[in-house]
Design a protein that fits this description.
heterodimer; A: 91 residues; mainly alpha; 4 helices; B: 131 residues; Helix Hairpins; 0% strand
Chain lengths: 91, 131
């Protein structure tokens, strides 16, 4: 079982390294991740949201629904913890 | 060849870290060690995303400078001056999800320990089979 897991991990790692050969270079400012929507946010953040911190303006304004879902995740996890740990005690 | 290795070895470091976590999740019998493996896995993903936001050449954190000085004036923002803010935001969300999964997993482990008195997977399976 241990050998099987090791072989699986090595195979998946080899596949991921093969995939990383096509990735952009470290610190490339023209990579796909930092060109399209990210430059839009940097250009328009001040005029749309009046917030100098672009991370804040994306988190709370442009992607507010994402943050709403995130709080839902936290709420669900907190409720799950409370329900799991409480039931045993009341027996 | 050397140039290529220098500009790509960060990805290989994350792949190595991720596979350490993956192996721990599969091979370890102790449930707490499995959770630690899951955390290492998620940390590797977070490091990978953060590394995509790096831009070479004197970049700072994505907080716009002199933003309030020009009142109403449209300052031309130099994108090459600031790091990519989008992966930071996405990883804030991912860290929150990571903490949530860690909390629920540890709560489940506490329940298992109260019920079976052990966190070793094979011992739990043995005691389930015995009834």
């Amino acid at each position: 079982m241990r050998i099987l897991s090791f072989v699986t991990a090595v195979l998946v790692g080899a596949a991921l390294i093969y995939g990383s050969l096509d990735m952009p270079q470290w610190g490339d400012p023209h990579s796909a991740a930092s060109t399209h929507v990210s430059s839009y946010y940097l250009h328009h953040s001040m005029e749309h949201t009046a917030t100098p911190n672009v991370v804040t303006s994306i988190l709370a304004d442009y992607r507010g629904y994402d943050t709403l879902g995130e709080t839902t995740v936290i709420f669900t996890a907190g409720m799950a913890c409370i329900l799991l740990l409480r039931r045993e005690r009341s027996r | 060849m050397f140039e290529f290795v220098v500009s790509h070895y960060n990805y290989w470091a994350y792949v190595g870290l991720m596979m350490i976590g993956f192996y721990a999740m599969m091979a370890k019998r102790n449930l707490i060690k499995k959770i630690i493996g899951m955390n290492i896995f998620q940390s590797a993903i977070i490091l990978f995303y953060i590394s995509t936001s790096v831009k070479k050449g004197g970049v700072t954190v994505p907080i716009l400078e002199h933003a309030h000085k020009g009142h109403g004036a449209h300052h031309a923002v130099d994108i090459m001056q600031y790091a990519n803010p989008l992966p930071h935001v996405l990883m804030l969300t991912a860290i929150v999800v990571m903490v949530a999964t860690l909390g629920v997993a540890v709560a489940v482990c506490i329940m298992i320990y109260r019920r079976y008195g052990t966190l070793e997977e094979d011992e739990i399976i043995m005691s389930i089979k015995r009834g």
